[in-house]
Amino acid sequence: MRLAAVDIGSNAIRLQITQVTFYEGNINFKKLEYLRFPLRLGMDVFQEQKISDKNRSKFVKLMRAFKLLIDLYEVDDYMVCATSAMRESINGKEIVEEVKEEIGLKINIIDGNHEAELINMALGAHIDQKAYLHIDVGGGSTELNIYKNLEKLASKSFKIGSVRALEDKVPLSVWKSMSNFITENVDIKDKITCIGTGGNINKIFELAAPRKGKTFISIEKIREIQGYLESLTFEERIFKVNLNHDRADVIIPAAKIYLAAMDAANSKKMLIPDVGLKDGLMQVLYKRNKNKNPPKQ
């Protein structure tokens, strides 16, 4: 079985094509293709409330390219989900309809809660009975989920994202609202462990150069990496640290969001499972196809 997931974010758009195989009672998800294209839709939307004609044209071309790959890989099923930039854009639905009519690709614009639910589906193997605060920072929004004893106790989406924060489009009241949500729903006596998802925290974890097999990073190390990156110019982040152009500016405001959430929860460490929206989409796709198209032995 071959499945494809497309995550249309505010800072970048990702396509993943996965082969699902079955052997001796075990299911394996093998990545066949992964593409990330740095089309920053959020920059348009958070400033002008709409996607510009230039980025609209590039977006349609990108969707055509993704559809060709989906067809070439003979994918059995796919899902395309768009998050904060597309859902806040006044011409978002119009662009979605254009892609459907011209290319035959169906795009689902999802709200923050649905986005969080999809990401949570990929976290199952990484949590246990302890207390966790899951922090997913995107370009336009941050999704928070609080777990204890394998139960989700609270969940909320906030209009705080790396691109939005970069453009100073986040009111102080929203920062306070996020902090209040955390303090009202976690018990610091539980010694909360945070779970960080999103491209920026994965890059921060990589820059921390953890020992092989290590999946945690301390809050002190995140602060250290943030301070180091702030000491560099934009160009130095690209040439000295080897960051992509579309990562070199947003990684600092993203770190600020993760740290603000960790501070509110009085958490000292973060688990980095390297999963995201596309992985949750794969779980949905597999569940709806496993009976009608079961993996072969």
TrEMBL record:
<dbReference type="InterPro" id="IPR050273">
    <property type="entry name" value="GppA/Ppx_hydrolase"/>
</dbReference>
<protein>
    <submittedName>
        <fullName>Exopolyphosphatase/guanosine-5'-triphosphate, 3'-diphosphate pyrophosphatase</fullName>
    </submittedName>
</protein>
<dbReference type="InterPro" id="IPR003695">
    <property type="entry name" value="Ppx_GppA_N"/>
</dbReference>
<dbReference type="InterPro" id="IPR043129">
    <property type="entry name" value="ATPase_NBD"/>
</dbReference>
<dbReference type="Pfam" id="PF02541">
    <property type="entry name" value="Ppx-GppA"/>
</dbReference>
<feature type="domain" description="Ppx/GppA phosphatase N-terminal">
    <location>
        <begin position="30"/>
        <end position="282"/>
    </location>
</feature>
<dbReference type="GO" id="GO:0016462">
    <property type="term" value="F:pyrophosphatase activity"/>
</dbReference>
